[in-house]
Amino acid sequence: LDENLNITSDKRIVAALPSIKYVIENGGKLILMSHLGRPKGQRIEKYSLKPVAKRLSELLGKEVIMAPDCIGEEVENIVNNLKEGDVVLLENVRFYKEETDNNPEFAKKLASLGDVYVNDAFGTAHRAHASTVGVTQYIAQCAMGYLMKKEVEFLVGAVENPQRPFVAIIGGAKISGKIDVIKNLLPKVDKLLIGGGMAYTFYKAMGYEIGKSILEEDKIDLAKELLELGKDKIELPVDVLITNELDFDGRKVGETKYVKATEIPTDWEGIDIGPETIKKFSEIILSAKTIVWNGPMGIFEIDESAKGTIEIANALAKATQENGAITIVGGGDSASAIKKAGVEDKISHVSTGGGASLELLEGKELPGLVALTDK
Question: Average model confidence (pLDDT) for the chain?
């Protein structure tokens, strides 16, 4: 939402429509639970789901009843008066601290409203909350929705049974957030392309000067270990875009130039991959049959340093459209980058969950999935 509470992206609402429509078209009475923002157990009006009810009504072409709360007598009365095909949206479940605490009493009150539970919130499947895990203790039949099914098929299927060559592209600022993903994917991939801020820690581990580029001092040994483990599977940038001044908040950079990745001057910093790297990475991507991407190649929020990320997005789109490759983009920044490049509809699958998609790529089990009776 923007500051006037207008929806700026309805991607997740639209993604849930197949499950929503299925229930309505088959005469079910639909009770929707969700959250917005982090109200931390307090009723904060700007986090109300009212704008969501309004948008969903427009998308469905029918009224979505907005409940004043998510539990309590008033809500029970609304639910008891629903007719077949009706839809009610409960107010933000995170207005109660009991939601994130996965409180059994609270979960029981939510569960008492329905007969069958469907989890289609992939974006929160990695959280053991009352609305994702707790309710499953009190409802006999718990299934995954169509969006959840699609996410799991793509993210688990790609990693466990990939068509080869299988290439993973890992970017973003820090290695620390992606250690488990890299460790899980390294034995499985044919190539692992590393870009973004994390690449500089690898170069530091190899003994090169990285100037003022982002560095995780405590991860240098780990980078050495990963390089040893990955050997010729790991591909690092060969050239980078550097700047002598970076103002991230002001979205501005000073002077910029391309240099070899191993020749960064002491008071400059790397902010994107260079043209040689774009060419090399794109060739590898275009020779692949399965590609997983998580994390941008540079500071894509600033136009001057977005080129690398945009070009990798374009290469992914080309691999999908022209070579029939299966391309999967993890949520968060990578999804924003795909959108910025304008190739959202040219990728096989863009995940709706940042943290959840990362954990699946790490090979972890998601609490929200484990809790379901029908996998």
Answer: 95
Catalytic residue among 172, 295, 332, 354, which?
A: 332
Contact indicator for 281, 195 with CB cutoff of 8 Å: yes
Residue 134 appears among annotated catalytic residues: no
Give the type of residue at 141: Q
> How many Cβ atoms from other residues are within 10 Å of residue 349's Cβ?
20
Q: How far is CA 331 from the centre of its chain?
A: 2
Can you tell me the distance from the alpha carbon of 152 to that of 117, in angstroms, rounded to the nearest whole number?
18
What is the DSSP secondary structure assignment for residue 217, as one 8-state letter?
Answer: G
Would you place residue 374 in the very low, low, confident or very high pLDDT band (cuts 50, 70, 90)?
low
Q: Cβ–Cβ contacts within 10 Å for residue 309, how many?
A: 30
DSSP for residue 45: G
Here the tokens at position 259 are 């240099």
Is 174 part of the annotated catalytic residue set? yes
| 368 included as an active-site residue | no
Of 50, 149, 174, 224, which is the active-site residue? Answer: 174
Task: Please report which helix (H) or strand (E) contains residue 291, including its range.
Answer: strand 290-294
Q: Which residues pair with 66 in a beta bridge?
A: 89
First to last CA, the chain: 33
Is pLDDT larger for residue 157 or for residue 84? 84
Measure the CA angle with vertex 98, ends 106 and 16; round to 5°. Answer: 80
Three-state secondary-structure class, residue 76: helix
Active-site residue flag, 355: yes
Relative to beta strand 191-194, strand 349-350 is unpaired
Name 294's bridge partners: 170
Long-range contacts at 219-225 (CB < 8 A, ≥ 24 apart): 219/174, 219/175, 219/176, 219/179, 222/175, 222/179, 223/175
Q: Tell me which of 85, 114, 355, 363 is the catalytic residue.
A: 355
Strand partners, 273: 240
According to DSSP, residue 60 is labeled H
CB 278 within 8 A of CB 308: yes
The whole-angstrom distance between residue 156's C-alpha and the CA centroid of its chain comes to 14
Distance between CA atoms of residues 222 and 120, nearest Å: 36
Question: Residue 128 and residue 133: Cα distance in Å, rounded?
Answer: 5
φ, ψ for residue 370, nearest 5 deg: -60, -35
Residue 354: pLDDT band (50, 70, 90) is confident
